[in-house]
């Protein structure tokens, strides 16, 4: 492109071209150039290694290499990142072997190009001023887009200031190749950002409207003086517009899950639908009708209006004489995740919505919905918009404590990243808390695994195989407080 612009005489555009760009090294030539640069710097210049600096991670097919190229296409820097443990990938990655050609160090240059989510190369500019800093930012962006939840690197002591300026945090001193280094960690705030966007303001908004005593913030609410439990959910208007049949199905799914979390058996639904015309309404209602039939829960009535923007909400009624609260947990209770791992990402919602229910038969759906009512744990929450970690934060908040989640034990579908699974809507998934040693929920095709615990304090911490703990939620999720 630069040559074309020069031929056309467009000097301004030529001058505005970034001095370098960053891309994933997918060719053998790019990888070889990166390794040659590493040898030049780490072996010949710094003397950290003898002969070469190659290790087992260079042969690991999971290792990702990002390189910086100048305007002529020459590799002038690079960095690699890779999973810290063998399969399965737990979302813990390591960055390292950051190298910049001597001729491009500590130079102020035009903004580089960083990789966008799930792409190998882009042409967007950033404000990074140096090749090394740009490579670090690119590695952080790639890791977060890959669903990584813990990203670390061992840094030469002389580079600690640069990493700190970029937002990295010092963990502890370490030694690499006989040379002092510092272990540093990049904070990934994906879970906190999700709950802040979806749940943070509920406490202040719902003052005086937050259910009945003992059931504050629950998925449904017991109707005083009866054995009825009511639940209500609205579907995002953008989702109704984009995928009306799926929106109709989900309007049933989320409501029967809410009832199931309280141990209630669903008995009927009421829907309220706004649609621009009859044709659009028929698509929404087709999905709702199909789910109603699949779950065996009748639509008792509702309201439909044409000539308005898309809107859909459903109210569900269920029955139980002993509702299970979402805030019944206590420090020391074991946390169990019961989830249906079958299915796939819903087309158009990869990484955000998992669809296991549309392929299930009625007995399977009934078994999952009945599992909490049969087990009657101390506390239960349906995993919803806040994801697994955010929903655990709500259960802990309502229980007046904090929670730890053991990532190595969290059940998840093959091929999904930890970051996506912890923050998506998972179809059918229940978090329960009860005394240690309580057996798994009998939930048909769903798997039920003890994968955490409630602890004194507040917030949610991820527990890793090496014993490290990383905080992902710093306090209460909703602000509604203890039930």
UniProtKB/TrEMBL annotation:
- UniProt xrefs under Pfam families: AIRS (PF00586), AIRS_C (PF02769)
Q: Which residues form the PurM-like N-terminal domain?
A: 224-319
Domain of life where this protein originates: Bacteria
One GO term (biological process) = thiamine biosynthetic process
**PurM-like C-terminal domain spans which residues?**
368-439
Q: Name one GO molecular function term.
A: thiamine-phosphate kinase activity
InterPro entries documented for this protein: Acyl_CoA_acyltransferase, MSMEG_0567/sll0787_C, PurM-like_C_dom, PurM-like_C_sf, PurM-like_N, PurM-like_N_sf, ThiL-like
Which Gene3D superfamilies does this chain map to? 3.40.630.30, PurM-like C-terminal domain (3.90.650.10), PurM-like, N-terminal domain (3.30.1330.10)
Q: What is this protein called?
A: AIR synthase
Recall the taxonomic lineage recorded for the source organism.
Bacteria, Bacillati, Actinomycetota, Actinomycetes, Pseudonocardiales
């Amino acid at each position: 492109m630069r040559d074309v612009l020069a031929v056309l005489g467009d000097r301004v555009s030529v001058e505005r071209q970034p001095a370098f760009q960053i891309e994933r090294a997918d060719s053998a030539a790019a990888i070889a150039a990166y390794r040659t640069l590493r040898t030049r710097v780490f072996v010949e210049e710094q003397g950290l290694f003898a002969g070469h600096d190659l290790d087992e991670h260079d042969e690991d097919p999971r290792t990702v290499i990002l390189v910086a190229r100048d305007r002529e296409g020459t590799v002038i820097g690079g960095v690699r990142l890779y999973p810290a443990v063998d399969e399965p990938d737990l979302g813990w990655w390591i960055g390292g072997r950051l190298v910049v050609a001597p001729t491009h160090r500590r130079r102020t240059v035009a903004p580089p190009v960083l990789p966008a989510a799930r792409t190998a190369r882009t042409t967007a500019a950033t404000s990074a001023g140096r090749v090394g800093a740009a490579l670090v930012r690119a590695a952080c962006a790639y890791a977060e887009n890959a669903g990584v939840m813990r990203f670390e690197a061992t840094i030469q002591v002389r580079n600690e200031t640069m990493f700190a300026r970029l937002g990295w945090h010092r963990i502890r001193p370490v030694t690499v190749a006989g040379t002092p280094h510092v272990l540093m960690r990049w904070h990934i705030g994906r879970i906190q950002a999700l709950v802040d966007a979806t749940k943070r303001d509920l406490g202040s908004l719902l003052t005086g409207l937050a259910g009945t005593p003992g059931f504050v913030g629950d998925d449904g609410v017991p109707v005083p003086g009866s054995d009825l439990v009511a639940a209500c959910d609205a579907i995002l208007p953008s989702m109704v517009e984009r995928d009306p049949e799926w929106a109709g199905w989900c309007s049933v799914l989320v409501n029967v899950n809410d009832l199931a979390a309280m141990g209630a058996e669903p008995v009927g639904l009421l829907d309220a639908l706004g649609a621009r015309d009859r044709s659009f309404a028929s698509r929404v209602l087709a999905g709702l009708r199909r789910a109603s039939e699949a779950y065996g829960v009748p639509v008792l009535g509702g309201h439909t209006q044409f000539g308005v923007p898309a809107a859909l909400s459903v109210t569900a009624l269920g029955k139980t004489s002993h509702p299970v609260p979402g805030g019944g947990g206590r420090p020391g209770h074991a946390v169990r995740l019961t989830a249906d791992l079958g299915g796939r990402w819903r087309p158009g919602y990869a990484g955000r919505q998992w669809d296991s229910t549309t392929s299930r038969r009625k007995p399977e759906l009934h078994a999952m919905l009945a599992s909490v009512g049969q087990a009657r744990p101390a506390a239960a929450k349906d995993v919803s918009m806040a994801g697994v970690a955010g929903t655990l934060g709500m259960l802990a908040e309502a229980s007046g404590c904090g929670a730890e989640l053991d990532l190595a034990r969290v059940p998840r579908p093959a091929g999904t990243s930890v970051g996506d699974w912890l923050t998506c809507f998972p179809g059918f998934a229940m978090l329960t808390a009860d005394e240690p040693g309580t057996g798994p929920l009998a939930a048909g095709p769903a798997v039920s695994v003890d994968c955490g615990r409630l602890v004194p304090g507040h917030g949610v911490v991820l527990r890793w195989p090496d014993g490290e703990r990383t905080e992902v939620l710093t306090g209460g999720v909703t602000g509604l407080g203890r039930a």
